[in-house]
Structure of GntR family transcriptional regulator:
Amino acid sequence: MIIDLKDERPIFIQIADGIEDAILSGIFTEESQIPSITEFSVNYKINPATALKGINILVDSGMVYKKRGLGMFVTKGAVEKLREKRKEQFFDNYINNLIAEANRLNISKSEIVLMIERGLSNE
């Protein structure tokens, strides 16, 4: 995980997003432990309160939970919850904008599909 001080997003959001990415990519599997607040603060040279704020976002959304005296763990079902959350964000952030721009340019549905297929074939 990389903390980018030039990123517009607050550090605690970057921490939450980074842990989510690690869960989705399998670095942190369901029911596995994530790094402690202290580890985040030492490794990234940030205030522990900032690390805690980022992790609390994940606790509040049900992605991680605390085992008293042991640390924070990835919730069972977190991967599926994250996929659904990210799909919704993808739709809201990209698809809606794509459709709005296509309408402004008078691009048809079939043309959009062809463009997407062309983009996918370039991978």
In short: The mean pLDDT is 93. The radius of gyration is 18 Å. Strands lie at 64-67, 71-74.
